[in-house]
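Cross-check.
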Amino acid sequence: MANVERISLSFPKFLLSELDSIVESKNYSSRSELIRDAVRKYVIENNALNPGKTVNGMITVVYSPSKDAMEEMSHIYFDYENIIKSMNQSYVKTACEKNKKLEIFVIEGESDIVSEFYQKIQNISGKIYDNIIIF
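Predicted model, tokenized:
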């Protein structure tokens, strides 16, 4: 591959095992190919939030349900309730058998406000996963 730079990444064993399973089941040629694909998707989604346009989408977050984290999420929710069209909450077990809280938001609003909302969610205490899909 021309113009490729090597980097080093560290993963917990259970996550690396999950990564390897995906490489095999989705027929990726290597871990690197899967990681490049995931980063490309992240860049595309991030660029969809360029300022000045109205967007619709879905934001998913999974986090440890501590009192502080749930209060943080509550404040974020009320600060951005004008762009939240619906919300669903549930408790789930992760791959490492830990109980976590899952929240899904359907959103509609100006891209800069949606981006601000998503950035707040990305920074909550105990977050282990977040995702945004813009359509």
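Residues 14 and 22 are 13 Å apart (CA to CA). The chain has two domains: 13-47, 54-134. Passed to J.P. for a second look.
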